[in-house]
Amino acid sequence: MVIGAGPGGYVCAIRSAQLGLRTILIEKDRLGGICNISGCIPSKALISVTKLYEKTKEGTAFGIVADGIRVDLPSLQKWKAGVVSSLEAGVASLCRGNKVSIIHGEAELVSADSLKVKTAEGTEEKHTKNVVIATGSRAMSLPGLEFDGNLVVSSTEALSLEKVPENMLVVGAGYIGMEITGVYQKLGSKITIVEMTDELLPGTEQDLVRLVQRNLEKRGAQIHLKSKVISLEKDAKGSQVKAKISTPNGEITFEGSVVLVGVGRGPCTEGMNLSKIGVETDPKGYVITDQQMKTNVEGVYAIGDVRGQPLLAHKASKEGIVAAEVMAGLPSAADWKSIPWAIFTDPEIAGVGLTEKAAVEAGLQVKRSRFSFAALGRALVAGETEGFVRIVSDAKTGLVLGVQIVGPEASNLISEAALAIEMGATVEDIALTIHPHPTLPEAIMEAAEVAAGRPIHQVKV
After folding, report:
1. Which of 97, 155, 191, 224 lies at a 20 to 30 A Cα distance from 218?
2. pTM over 0.90
3. Catalytic residue among 104, 224, 435, 437
4. In the annotation, is 437 catalytic?
């Protein structure tokens, strides 16, 4: 039995059924989980359209004249909802095709081998040999900034707005807040960002973030670092908010119609009775497992966001496959070398493997090489020349240790780097691999040629 039909849960259920296990998938909401319904997919749908919109507005540089172009947000939301519904139907079809039984209800663990499932028809007890907890994560609020679904919203509500806010306050400069910020800024919102730390996208190398920050500020965003909201007032009509913000330069006031709180996510484990049956969790509530997704309780597994950082859909899916194969008796484990990540800002940022700092801290002698998109033909013809590809490699062997990209299609480019690291490739391997021209992946090859000491389209220094 798999609890939660997100990208970890439904993948786990399908793989379990393929391996001959009788499988039941339990979901209290919609198939596809947060990722498909109110996270990854809807956000990228809006990001794709608003990027196209901005590109068209700037089309005069390319000879495209599009006077009076605008985005009808309700129509855009309707299209986005259609994409989401299509994917949801696809998950249901895959489950049926693989003989996975689906129960729409809320599950509660009674013991390691039994659950109570509350459905529209009532509550019944189910018995099972194995149970997989795949309940995901939820947005976290702050004291005084509790979600009301109208004025103070999480990413879920922010992705479904029917009207573009004239002024939007974004509290928290993590990847969720920054991705949504880009959408509404392109649609015309005046953005104010408040972040407690001293940098946007905390934890991301700042030379990658610098281009994102510059573009936000170029479009008029007010960015306040080392700052926090100290009070929030809502008007009697419930249509406007006034926030007082403490900054290093003094107190300022924000007035607008939407406050997006994006300060992180926490595991969805409430009501699961994990402590009652003895499942161990860490201080933040994430379920502790080994590399085979096993908890400390026999027959109980956990995958995806509920298992802890990084909170990534593709990680959850791979963990789901591991759990399914372990339950079927196969010698599977999370033995991947690294997990790629991507942030869909403008420009995009992506990475995989070790940063230069992490490699040095691990005692490795490293070489850092980079190639700018400004020197790449495909980037030039696309009018997207900001950014670069950086390869961190072992100075002695040339082994690729990590790759970071900021620039056009970084999210798509990073997969080649992930494959290189998984296969133990060297910079020489990448440099010798012929890449089609003119394409963006050539930037990876060019960065590898720099590392190998024979750059062609960059002056050797």
Report:
1. 155
2. yes
3. 437
4. yes
